[in-house]
Amino acid sequence: MLHIKSFTFNPFQENTYLLYDETGEGALVDPGCYEASERQELKDFIHENQIKIRQILNTHCHIDHVLGNAWAKRTFGAPLYIHQEDLQVLKSVEVYAPNYGFQGYEASEPDGFLAEGETVSVGNETLKIIFVPGHAPGHVVFYHQESNQLIAGDTLFKGSIGRTDLPGGNHNLLLSKIKSELFSLPSETVAYPGHGPKTTIGYEKIHNPFVGERAIY
């Protein structure tokens, strides 16, 4: 059984997700922890539940989702995986992080790349990698078919979508990919976004003002 534990970190109120199953093996998705207290909160939960972090995954590499990458790699001894199209996005964070007040940002290097159609394993559970660019050029999401749960990153929010005015963003591409890749999932699929509360694919197909049946754009 796949367990999903969420944490909300940093001034951007980013959702960091810890995935694990009954084997005690886990994956850390988008570690946005920056302050020492945030990192301690995450570390304490992992220690108390005796979870072994086997890999660190980035849905995409905007600053709020990667602030804890280097710390997590060092602390848990786990490799980092991103989509290759987001490599330059990750590298650019080191340049602009001080402008956002993150003077102590530590750059990280990926240990491998995620590819569309492949899978990632969390203990005995398998999640499909789905490529959904538009918010970022290398944005991926992770879908667990058995439980109909989706780690959506910044593609789809409750009642909204990811912004597309950042470098590498493409509004029309994001709308198209949400409709073709995410709205093709079962309506009962629970989507865990990179910010804000969880939602369902069925709800967004009807109510989302950008891509739902009642869309105004």
Protein architecture, described:
It is a single chain. The protein has 217 residues and is of the alpha/beta class. The protein has one domain (3-207): Ribonuclease Z/Hydroxyacylglutathione hydrolase-like (Metallo-beta-lactamase, Chain A, 4-Layer Sandwich), CATH 3.60.15. Helix content is 25%, strand content 29%. It is built from six helices and 14 strands. It has helices at residues 36-48, 63-66, 69-76, 87-96, 171-182, 201-207; strands spanning 3-9, 14-20, 25-29, 52-57, 80-83, 112-114, 119-122, 125-131, 140-144, 149-153, 156-157, 160-161, 190-193, 199-200. The chain has a six-stranded mixed beta sheet with strand order 1-2-3-4-5-6, with helices on one face. The model has no long low-confidence stretch (mean pLDDT 97).
Give descriptors for this structure.
217 residues, alpha/beta, Metallo-beta-lactamase, Chain A, six-stranded mixed sheet, Glyoxylase-like metal-dependent hydrolase (Beta-lactamase superfamily II), RibonucZ/Hydroxyglut_hydro, zinc
Quick structural overview:
By secondary structure, this protein is α/β, with parallel strands linked by helices. The chain has helices at 36-48, 63-66, 69-76, 87-96, 171-182, 201-207; strands at 3-9, 14-20, 25-29, 52-57, 80-83, 112-114, 119-122, 125-131, 140-144, 149-153, 156-157, 160-161, 190-193, 199-200.
